[in-house]
Specification:
single chain; alpha+beta; S-adenosylmethionine decarboxylase; nine-stranded mixed beta sheet
Length: 260
């Protein structure tokens, strides 16, 4: 911020970002479906996502205190980071411990497919919670670019309050009208974006859907020229239907429903 608040004590506002991306793919055969799961499980294993989250932590001006990561059988990976605003790190001792439960990064991956549709979907859930002056919003472009992001859902909330030296409460310490304020225009141009914001509660929600489908980019181990024009159209429509339903959060096209 250009005009920094003069605070009384520590800035204990908590800023949390929940970031979910979906990558949709067409895997033509049962073998291709299994190969796709194995591929994303390897490309986005716990070591890779740890590298991505380490860079994210550096970008938002935090420091990594500890990392726990795990790969899963049959598929999926996760990583958890304990982080801190660099102004909170003492020269020695453990004075920082009381603040650490609100500063962390977690990431989980969920590769999945359905054998009857040939559609495979890879999901990544990332949660970043910070306290102090740093905000996870500054790394959004990096996160979007780190994954093949067809659908993106983001929730951002600022909680608590801090006080200035005169005792006045501040319930937010930065200007924001939308999460989109923190995403580069060149990135936004590629997506249809929708906001649902509750300004009185400092709650912001944005979801984004990729506009254009370049079919070859969605075919796993298949060349687009191997397909007939009719097959290309059918696959493109199937991919778009999958994306629309994920974006909408419901079964739009009547192909089944969740009954609990």
């Amino acid at each position: 911020m250009e005009n920094k608040l003069k605070l009384y004590g520590f800035n204990n506002l908590t800023k949390s970002l929940s970031f979910n991306i979906y990558d949709v793919c067409y895997a033509r055969t049962p073998k291709a479906q299994l190969d796709y799961i194995a591929y994303v499980d390897e490309v986005y294993n716990s070591e890779r996502i740890t590298d991505i989250m380490t860079h994210l932590t550096e970008m938002i001006g935090a420091q990594v205190l500890s990392v726990s990561r795990q790969d899963y059988d049959p598929q999926g990976a996760s990583a958890t980071f304990l982080i801190a605003d660099d102004t909170m790190i003492p020269a020695g001792g453990n004075e920082i411990v009381a603040h650490l439960d609100k500063s962390h990064v977690t990431v989980h991956t969920y590769p999945e497919y359905h054998p009857e549709t040939s559609i495979a979907t890879f999901r990544v859930d990332i949660d970043v919670a910070t306290c102090g002056k740093i905000t996870p919003l500054t790394a959004l472009d990096y996160l979007i670019g780190s994954f093949d992001s067809d659908i993106i859902t983001m929730d951002y909330r600022v909680r608590g309050f801090t006080r200035n030296v005169g005792g006045e409460k501040f319930f937010i310490d930065h200007n924001i009208t939308s999460i989109q304020d923190y995403i580069d225009e060149s990135t936004l141009d590629k997506y249809d974006a929708v906001d649902i914001n509750v300004y009185q509660a400092n709650m912001f929600h944005t979801k984004m859907l990729i506009k254009e489908i370049e079919l070859q980019n969605y075919l796993f181990n298949t060349d687009v020229h191997e397909l007939s024009p009719r097959s290309r159209l059918d696959i493109t429509n199937a991919l778009r239907r999958e994306m629309i339903e994920i974006f909408s959060g419901r079964n739009v096209f009547g192909n089944g429903s969740f009954t609990g």
